[in-house]
Design a protein that fits this description.
The protein is α+β, with helices and mostly antiparallel strands. The chain is built from 6 helices and 5 strands; from the N terminus they run ααααββββαβα. It has a single domain, classed as Arc Repressor Mutant, subunit A (Orthogonal Bundle), CATH 1.10.10. Helices cover 43% and strands 14% of the residues. Bound molecules: zinc ion (2 copies). One zinc ion (ZN) binds next to helix 6.
């Protein structure tokens, strides 16, 4: 994969655009489904949307409002569960963290590329993997219900600096 087509965001990309796209999409999905996008849910998503980094629930909690008005960890987990179900946030099991999805409507199996250096997560949907996976499962007589692919390592930027 060439650097030009890397799913990793460029250093100088317009992140304001990513940020508003993520929040607008969540707002629209809530409206379509007739669910309330409560201030707390919005705040959790805003913190995640501030970067392409994977954040743990406690880091999110620390970045929320003043300590006096800080929600309980349970409330943060409830907001995260809501955002996961809405499909605007993904959970990274290896890192035990979350990040804001930057792609609408995943069609196939998603690969999550997680940089251990900078914490950025990039998403890709390889057609090849999407083709191979059902064959592999068939060979094993396995019926997959949920597939997730987390690849941890070092991104191009961290490798060259
Ligand atoms: Zn961005
Ligand atoms: Zn990196």
């Amino acid at each position: 994969m060439s650097v030009d087509t890397s799913p990793f965001p460029a250093v100088d990309h317009d992140h304001g655009y990513c940020r508003s796209w993520i929040l607008q999409r969540a707002q629209q999905l809530c409206e379509q489904q007739g669910i309330r996008f409560t201030p707390q849910r919005r705040e959790v998503l805003t913190i995640l949307a501030a970067s392409h980094h994977c954040l743990g629930a406690y880091t999110i909690l620390e970045r929320m409002a003043q300590p006096a008005r800080r929600p309980t960890p349970a409330a943060v987990y409830r907001a995260l569960d809501f955002l996961l179900a809405l499909g605007v946030v993904h959970r990274m099991h290896g890192q035990n963290g979350y990040f804001a999805c930057t792609r609408a409507n995943h069609q196939t199996i998603v690969q999550f590329w997680i940089c251990r250096g900078c914490g950025v997560v990039a998403e890709s949907e390889s057609q090849e993997i999407a083709r191979i996976m059902p064959n592999l499962a068939a060979e094993m007589a396995f019926h997959p219900v949920w597939v997730t692919m987390e690849i941890e390592g070092e991104c191009h930027r961290c490798r060259t600096t």
